[in-house]
Amino acid sequence: MRTLSITLVCWALFGAGTIQAETNFNDSFVYETNEISSTFSGSGNCGCDTCDTCDCCDYGRWFLLPQDDCGINIHGWIDAGVIGNTDSPRSKFNGPYNAVDRSNEVMMNQFYLVAEKELSSCCWGLGGRVDVMYGEDFFLAESIGMEKRQNGSSHWNGEYYGLAIPQAYISAGSRDLNIQMGHFYSVVGYEGVMAPANFFYSKAYSYQFAGPFTHWGAQVNWTPSDAWELSVGVHNGWDALDRTNDRAGMIAKVKYNFCRPGTWTSFALTTGDEANNPASLGGVTNDITNRTRYSWIVNVPFRCDWEYVFHHWFGRQEDGAPGRMVADWYGIDQYLHYTINDCWKVGARFEWFRDVDGTRVGLNRPRNPNNPPLAGDYYSFTFGVNWMPTENLTIRPEVRADWFDGAAGTFPYDDGNDDSQVMFGIDGILLF
Q1: pLDDT tops 70 at residue 123
Q2: Are 233 and 272 in contact, with CB atoms under 8 Å apart?
């Protein structure tokens, strides 16, 4: 599989034909979350005569409230759907998931509101943003010392539905050079919390278990040229405002945009001291040790409406495995997208996640019985379609297969009874 990944990257970089320019996932609005917001392109002006267009989406993007280029704007979305699991587990959990994790029942994942004042592209000023989210996905956006107490218990949320504040920061400067201070999404990784910024309804293992969701701290963002984008900052750890042992960590990212439009690569890293036994494994002495995670992403559009994404990531925790050994987790995600026209897009995702010591997969809701240690290799293949009948509505059906290769008798699916599962899902995102 590693050989296949490298072969695909090399072919896409050096053997592709005409390509299209990089745009945002939804051309009508920018959703900043990790890398995926600037990756998936709609059909459009790539210089290919074979690129079809479609007038079925020509209703225009509407907002529930008026938008002001110079003032504070409020907007958001609603995301709801269902995941059908062919195993029908008794616990109603889709294996060791922590996102879209309930099987065979309707989920209201996100009622999401954003209030923001953007920075100017031509001069210096002040800006900021506050995000508020209610729904089942609150679990992905909680912070220790905010929604959760220092011991991990909840301040105000239940297990399945709750309220979280994923972002709350002020910014100063311009779009090319600024500093943001407060609470913001991590730049390490590919997928993100915000539903409109992802192609698929279900989440990759690398997003659910491999890295942080958010940080509290400060980050400087600099775009010195069209080719380079740089970020560096300090934070108080993974998803934490106030921990029992507050320790400063760092985060950094560099992105390079090649001359060929839409072709780019990025590398992001975060490192700092974290609790070394989040899975509460036996044989691990509870301590605060270094945890480091990086992501390397390559995005290559080719053949006009095709786009390939390669994502390699690695995580390490000192003294995180029994016997004071280092705990490692790493893997590869690959995405292939095809734009049929303005209304229809098709995508596939293949991922491999190796949880060497069983310290990461299964860090989920308290009642989920699929808990660590579940050491082994996780694989999944997802195929889905995005249908946009209007610019404010996206319907995302998908089919997903998961399978596991690990210790005999240790299974992560169907409440520990199976080493594989097949699911069918569909959700809808309404922007307002």
Answers
A1: yes
A2: no
CB 246 within 8 A of CB 236: yes
User: What's the rounded Cα separation, in Å, for the pair 412 and 430?
Assistant: 33
Specify burial of residue 187 (Cβ count, 10 A radius: 0-12, 13-18, 19+): buried
Q: What is the DSSP letter of 140?
A: G
272: left (phi over 0), alpha (psi -120 to 50) or beta: left
- With a cut of 90, say whether residue 427 has pLDDT above it: yes
Higher pLDDT, 1 or 79: 79
Residues 89-102 as b or e (16 or more Cβ within 10 Å = b): beeebbbbbbbbbb
Is residue 50 very low, low, confident or very high in pLDDT (cuts 50, 70, 90)? very low
Confidence band, pLDDT 50/70/90 cuts, at residue 304: confident
What one-character DSSP code corresponds to residue 139? G
CA 86 to mean position of chain CA atoms: 25
The Cα 247–Cα 49 span in angstroms is 55
18 vs 378, residue with greater confidence: 378
CB-CB contact of 19 with 44 (8 Å): no
Residues 81 and 396: beta-carbon distance below 8 Å: yes
Integer angstrom CA distances of residue 103 from 78, 86, 351: 20, 9, 21
Q: Which domains occur in the chain, in start order?
A: 2-431 (2.40.160.10)
Check: CB of residue 333 under 8 Å from CB of residue 198.
Answer: no
Element of type H or E holding 350:
strand 344-355
Check residue 59 and give its pLDDT: 62
Full-prediction pTM beyond 0.85? yes
Contact between 272 and 174 under an 8 Å Cβ cutoff? The reply is no
pLDDT at residue 69 above 90?
A: no
Measured between alpha carbons, how far is 240 from 246 in angstroms, rounded to an integer?
9
* Greater pLDDT, 57 or 414: 414
Structure tokens at 237: 């750890």
What is the mean pLDDT of the segment spanning 124-146?
A: 96
Bridge pairing between strands 288-302 and 177-185: unpaired
Please state, as a whole number, how many other Cβ atoms lie within 10 Å of the Cβ of residue 368: 21
Answer for the pair 154, 148: CB distance below 8 angstroms, yes or no.
Answer: yes
pLDDT number for residue 18: 30
If pLDDT is split at 50, 70 and 90, which confidence band does 45 have?
Answer: very low
**CA-only gyration radius of the chain, Å:** 21
Region label for 58, one of left (φ > 0), alpha (ψ between -120 and 50) or beta (otherwise): alpha
- Return the structure tokens found at 347: 């995508």
Residues with Cβ within 8 Å of residue 281, at least 6 apart in sequence: 321, 322, 358, 359, 372, 373
